[in-house]
Structure formats: C-alpha cells, structure tokens
Amino acid sequence: MAEKKKGLGKGLEAIFGDNVSTVLEEIQHSGHGSEEIEVKLIHPNPYQPRQHFDQDRIDELAMSIKEHGVFTPVLIRKSVSGYQLIAGERRLRAVKQVGLERIPAIILDFDDRQMMEVSLIENIQREDLNVVEEAKAYQTLIERLGLTQEELGKKVGKSRVHITNTLRLFQLPESVIQMLYHQELSMGQVKPLISCEDKSLVETIAKRIVKEKLSAREVEALMKKKPKQDKVVSHRFDYAEQLLRNKLQTKVKIEGSKIQIHFDSEDDLNRLLDLMNALED
Question: Is 127 known to be catalytic?
Fold first, then answer.
C-alpha cells in the first residue's frame, strides 16, 4: 500500500496566504501516495459550498474517463466509516456515472478545521461558486473561524470591499436570494435593491426585472425613480385639533408634540393671544 501523504497536515496554516487551489492541484497532479480506493467508501465533503454542478461538464468528464481512465487522483481523508472527499467532486461524480468501482486517491491527514478551510477557500479561489454560494462560504468562514472581513479577504485573495458587498446579499428577501442563486437575476441587477428597506417592494421589482429583462443600469434608474412612500397619517389628535379650531376660529395642526396655529395678520395674532389670555393688562 502506498504511503499516505501528510505534507499539508500540520503545515496547512502556512499556505493560506498563497493560492490553496494551486497547491492542491500540485499534490493531485504529482500522484505521490496515490492508491486505488473503492468508490462506495468515499462519502461527500460535508463542507462543500457548491450546491450546483454543471451536468454537461460532468458528462464530458465521464466520456473522457470512460475512454482514457482517471489521470488525476482525488483527495480524501479517513473517516469513521470509510473516507470523506476533500477535493475532486466532479471526478468522483463522473466515475460513479461511468460505473467504475475504484478511483485513484491521495489520503491526507486533515482535521475538521483544516478540511473546512481548504474546501471553502479552494472553491472561492477557483471561482467555481455562484455569488450566493460564495456569500455563504464567507459567512461560514467568518462564523466558524472568528475572522474579520479584512482577515478573510487576505485568506481568499479578495478585497474587504468585495467581501462586504457580497455579504450584504443576505439583506435581500429569501425569495430574491433564491432567484439570484438560480441565476434568474445577476449581482449587478440586485445590487441597487440591497439598500431598500421595503422588502415587499424589493420582491415586486425583482419579479419585474426577470419579466422585463431589465439591465443593471435600468434597475438603478428604476430605484432612483421609485415613488416615495406616503406618510402614515395619524388621527390620534383629531378631536383636540377640532376643539382648538372651534375655540380659536383658525387652522390648527398637531404633529408629534407640536401645535401649529395659523394667523393671517398682526391683528389676528392679537385676537388669538387675547382668546388665550396671553395679553398683558
């Protein structure tokens, strides 16, 4: 049996400032420590941020594997019952599709934290994720590892501004996030909607964007022209206003903790002051 490769075990932290996906590719292409593992023993990666896989690409890979075999081993780690996949999801799916019983694999000695970091960071650096998956990956790394957005940006090779803007997607209604996830909407189209506090309005506009195929620029223009919400009219002081109008015989308005009394002239003002017993004798 080939010797397990443990090179990234304790030294994983040292590569996080570099390109993780490149390092993992080098390990896989080197083939060092590769051995044939039964496909049925390899379980999915619990930290895999990608939920959608392009079936056409898997079909193409399956055809190549059927004709030429698997050249690049997948990366796995030992688990309680068999193994867990670290990297090589498409290859594993294609092998299962072809019906092969074994796949070349390199066994790495990763703990849960290292596996999670590599799985999320590798996918982000490869830009394999859609924007919603990317936002969820950022959120997971921040919550699980206690990172600041600036620290996370350094790990994944993104600017802090990019991290912040991506995480702001969670301010959108869930229905709009799902439209973005299924690529009915683009990041550019939803960006003008994020700061809108009226969630029902955001959902209405999102549906309109899809129906009318509005561009990002058209959405921006639409949000600038959106009608202002009508002020909520309170009738709490209607009775008091009416009493004052009858007493003073002029327009009276109560707003918040203020009373506004209308007068037409200086004489009218003196009349009001007299009615309120405010004039000096």
Answer: no
